[in-house]
């Protein structure tokens, strides 16, 4: 259970950031030794949840996966790091950017394998959307990502309105 603070203060991108490191094992992979995309997506969803819930001070649920770009395969025996940060915060929703890198335990540099954008929505005890604190932006890069996230959020809203007719 997550304790909800009354009027929580805003948090910076770094304060709500989360990362997970996981060793990929044979049960994560197909017969060729490549890790299933669904395993990677599940971990992305979990780290996005941690980031969003940490920021919102409330439970968060996945509203959408806007993108999940698989750049390179992940193999059994590799260590995979999932690094998540907020790019945009609206009234109740948050966009989380997750970068995934893999590295061989035997050596070699980490390499990018997936990038994903996940929209999370904070919910209250009645499972209804609840307001989230503002995102405190500290530099030009964070402001740029925030504006890009705002544009994506508006595009998602337009798409939902068009689907409703």
Could you explain the architecture of this structure?
The chain is of the alpha+beta class. The protein contains 3 helices and 7 strands; from the N terminus they run βαβαβββββα. It has a single domain, classed as Thiol Ester Dehydrase, Chain A, CATH 3.10.129.10. The strands form 2 sheets. Strands 2-4-5-6-3 form a 5-stranded antiparallel β-sheet. A two-stranded parallel sheet has the order 1-7. The chain is globular and about 45 Å long. It starts with 10 loop residues before the first strand and ends with a helix.
Q: What's the gist of this structure?
A:
This protein is of the alpha+beta class and 165 residues long.
Order of helices and strands: EHEHEEEEEH
Structural class: alpha+beta
CATH architecture assignment name: Roll
Rg calc: 17 Å
Query: Beta-sheet strand percentage?
Result: 25-35%
Q: Which strand order do you get reading across the main beta sheet? A: 2-4-5-6-3
Number of helices: 3
Mean pLDDT: 93
CATH C-level category? Alpha Beta
Under CATH, the topology can be stated as Thiol Ester Dehydrase, Chain A
- How many individual domains? 1
């Amino acid at each position: 259970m997550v304790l909800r603070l009354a009027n929580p203060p805003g948090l910076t991108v770094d304060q709500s950031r989360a990362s997970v490191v996981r060793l990929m094992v044979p049960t994560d992979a197909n017969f060729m030794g490549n890790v299933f995309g669904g395993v990677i997506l599940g971990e992305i969803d979990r780290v996005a949840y941690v980031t969003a819930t940490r920021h919102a001070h409330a439970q968060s649920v996945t509203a959408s996966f806007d993108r999940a770009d698989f750049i390179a395969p992940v193999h059994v025996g590799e260590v995979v790091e999932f690094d998540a940060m907020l790019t945009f915060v609206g009234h109740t929703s948050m966009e989380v950017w997750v970068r995934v890198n893999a590295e061989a335990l035997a050596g070699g540099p980490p390499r990018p394998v997936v990038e994903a954008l996940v929209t999370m929505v904070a919910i209250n005890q009645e499972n209804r959307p609840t307001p989230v604190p503002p995102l405190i932006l500290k530099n030009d890069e964070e402001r740029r990502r925030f504006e890009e996230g705002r544009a994506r959020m508006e595009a998602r809203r337009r798409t939902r309105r068009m689907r409703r007719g």
